[in-house]
Amino acid sequence: MKQLLSATLDGIDAKPVDVEATFTKGLPAFGIVGLASSSIQEAKERVKAALLTNGFSFPPLKITVNLSPSDLQKTGSHMDLAIALVIALQNDPTELDNLYVFGELGLDGRLKDTRSIFPILLSLKNQNLVTKAMVPVESLEKLSLIPGITYIGVETLSEAVAVCKNEQAPKEVKATPIEGDSVEIGPERFHFLREYPEDFHDVKGQEVAKRAALIAAAGMHNMLMEGSPGCGKSMIAKRLCHILPPMSLDEILQANQYALLGDEEPTFKPLRPFRSPHHSASKPSVFGGGSSQARIGEVALANGGILFFDEFPHFSKTVLEALREPLQDHRVLISRVNSKVAYTTRFMFVAAQNPCPCGNLLSSVQPCRCSDIEIKRYKQRLSDPLLDRIEIYVQMQESGPDDRPSVDSASMHQKVIDTFCRQMERGQRRLNGKLEEREIESFCRLEGEAEAVLHKAVHSFGLSHRGVANVKKVARTIADLERSDSIEKAHLLEALSFRRRG
After folding, report:
1. pLDDT digits (tens, 9 = 90+) for 287-320
2. Which one Pfam family would you cite for this protein (predicted)?
């Protein structure tokens, strides 16, 4: 009995699958067992055609292919090559231990890439389960970004058989360079792009909001902008993704893994994701779900980047309240009868809202048409526990004819990169906005005068324990922007100025 290794996705994690084949006496037949999906059952015809067109003749025996473990649902056409090889090499003494095999077969034996190969191999590598894999040549460009795996690239089934029999040397694989610039901090390299298709130079006026955006980007802090329609809330949000901190290789790979699982085309660029669901989006589309198989949602696709909610209060109450968990725990668990999926949600949350239903409450020119009850009902859609998870609140200024551009994205991005380097060189593994409780105590210590100011603020503003932690994190980022090793009184006062009142 010949055996090879392949794998299947179970939620967002890959599970190894043993592919076994036996030839037994009986009526000639070809069957696949082991909870195989329809895409794998259809592989019988693809495998049979590919083997026959590449010189293999089927013996008059019953061929049974087993996919183990048998209680795990298997899906995907990437198992075609493994199934074909265990049949073609059945009588060959070649040892294929610890070799994972992936690839979809064409009827003529050509090998094709599939969307699931990259997330499967990345998950297997993160679990330290794979060191060597045979894959289609057209998959190598993106797969070579995953370090620590030796790849054997093949173009056809006959070439794969020849490599397994040591009759042909495998193709040499060169690592694909990542686009853009990079900065090296200790043993790790971080990557970023200096491309600004949407520039902060287009934002006229709004100096306070631009300062808040710089602080939020430098520390990946959650931010809420409130202002009249047309004052620039969405403009600022859309420009934020181009000035975010550099990304590690692991972050780039995970972002593209989630993109592939979300049926989107990956780019493998060091550009953090930007997700902006419409306010009519359902809870499953935002957080993930599905009737039988749990699928990832917008909060997972935004991991490491920005999740932007425009018209914040107009989202459904169930979506707004469910947002608390990913903002606080940076993790979401989706449970279904047949599957459970847990995924990381360490994103920067950015929201924009009008001050009232008509939008003119803060305007000195346009009269507000809303009644007190309408305004109160509008405000009450956002609960205090949800708002308490947002570190930076900005009340936008009114637009005026004298407003002028003051700063561009390139200069803001450079400040963010410098601040990022300070955080990493300090020994942090997370940016200021995503620090855990014990890390806040270690990295966000206050000077004596700043400690006294915070103590007064706790009593004056009724800050919760979470609110105090948020102020400390924002003050730490402001101090980093000012290249200060300690958090001083001025830094803390500016952080307090971005707290929401009432």
Report:
1. 987 666 667 899 999 999 999 999 999 999 999 9
2. Mg_chelatase_C
Nearest one of 140, 9, 5 to 83, comparing CA atoms: 5
Q: Residue 356 belongs to what H/E stretch?
A: none
Q: What is the distance between the alpha carbons of residues 318 and 267, in angstroms, rounded to a whole number?
A: 33
pLDDT tens per residue across span 336-371: 766 777 889 999 999 999 999 999 998 888 899 999
Read off the pLDDT of each residue in 477-482 and give the average, rounded to a whole number: 97
Residue among 278, 238, 237, 271 nearest 256 (CA): 271
342 and 193, same structural domain? yes
What CATH number does residue 29 fall under? 3.30.230.10
SS3 state of residue 360: coil
Measured CA to CA, the distance from residue 101 to residue 372 in angstroms comes to 66
Helix (H, G, I), strand (E, B) or coil at 111: strand
How far is 295 from 309, CA to CA, in rounded Å? Answer: 21
Q: Are residues 215 and 316 in the same domain?
A: yes
Cβ-proximal residues to 485 (8 Å cutoff; 6+ apart), any chain: 479
Amino acid at 170: P
- Say what percent of the chain tops pLDDT 90: 74
User: What residues have CB less than 8 Å from 242, skipping those under 6 apart?
Assistant: 193, 195, 196, 197, 198, 271, 409, 413
Q: Cα separation of 384 and 319, whole Å?
A: 15
Residue 416 in domain: no
Q: Which amino acid is at 466?
A: R
Residue ranges of E strands in 196-251? 223-226, 247-248
